[in-house]
Design a protein that fits this description.
single chain; alpha+beta; D-Maltodextrin-Binding Protein, domain 2; 4-stranded antiparallel β-sheet; 9 helices; globular
């Protein structure tokens, strides 16, 4: 789930507790920092994962409950995107102007911070783009690196950015959107592959029934049936078939 700002974190937790109550269960948050262990736990009831690990590592190992439909400035209709950010004073009028600058990637397993980012970069330059690339470990870390001048360009999940911008967070102050990627399905909700299809539908129904009191805070209108996340592999294939290189 998203980890900032505070009102979103609180609303997410309250929503999941309410959804569990509809199922006659008690919500028990996962303890620990190892995401893959959480996602592959045989008793997993519900988790939020990134679309790229879903298609690269989790295929056939989990079941997708649904795709949330956010209605935020840069996310709509079940899709989000990567927002390519730079500092307000950066001398870039367009993405191509940033060639030779320093790139920031939150992680090589990220869809919005890596997969969509490289697709956008390759579209404007089919070769080595950056002079250097730093892996920051997370979207908020990328924002911090950008503000501190430790890199020049970063791609951040649009839901993360919209949440922080709505909250007037200092984490996005002094930054501007230089470009946006093609749309991509929003981060999916998953459950254990041992769950029966009826259980998967019941989970999605409970999330939707519990949602109304928290919809405004979360910017979510509904949890839809699973989107086609195979499009992420198509975007990857386009880049892999080119001469693009990070640096």
């Amino acid at each position: 789930m998203y980890v900032a700002p505070g009102q979103v974190v609180e609303a997410q937790a309250a929503w999941l507790r309410a959804a569990a109550a509809y199922l006659g269960e008690t919500w028990q948050p996962f303890e620990g920092d190892e995401l893959m262990a959480q996602w592959l736990a045989p008793d997993l009831r519900l988790a939020h994962t990134c679309g790229y690990p879903l298609v690269k590592q989790l295929g056939g190992r989990v079941k997708v409950v649904g795709t949330p439909r956010y209605e935020l400035p840069h996310s709509s209709g079940g899709t989000h995107c990567s927002l390519v950010l730079c500092r307000e004073q950066a001398p870039f009028a367009c993405l191509a102007d940033a060639r030779g600058s320093r790139g920031l990637v939150n992680g090589w397993d990220s869809n919005s911070g890596m997969n969509l980012f490289r697709h956008s970069l390759q579209a404007v330059h089919d070769g080595a783009f950056f002079s250097d690339v730093v892996v920051t470990g997370g979207h908020r870390a990328s924002l911090r690196h950008l503000r501190q001048g430790l890199g020049d360009l970063a791609a951040v999940d649009s839901v993360t950015y919209d949440y922080l911008a709505r909250d007037h967070s200092e984490e996005v102050q002094g930054l501007r959107v230089l470009a946006r990627s093609v749309p991509s399905p929003c981060l999916p909700f998953i459950t254990s592959r041992q769950s029966a299809d009826a259980e998967v539908e019941a989970l999605r129904d409970a999330l939707n029934r519990a949602l109304p009191p928290f919809a405004a805070a979360l910017g979510i209108e509904e949890v839809m049936p699973p989107a086609d996340y195979g499009v992420l592999l198509q975007l990857e294939a386009q880049v892999n078939g080119s001469r693009f290189a990070w640096a």
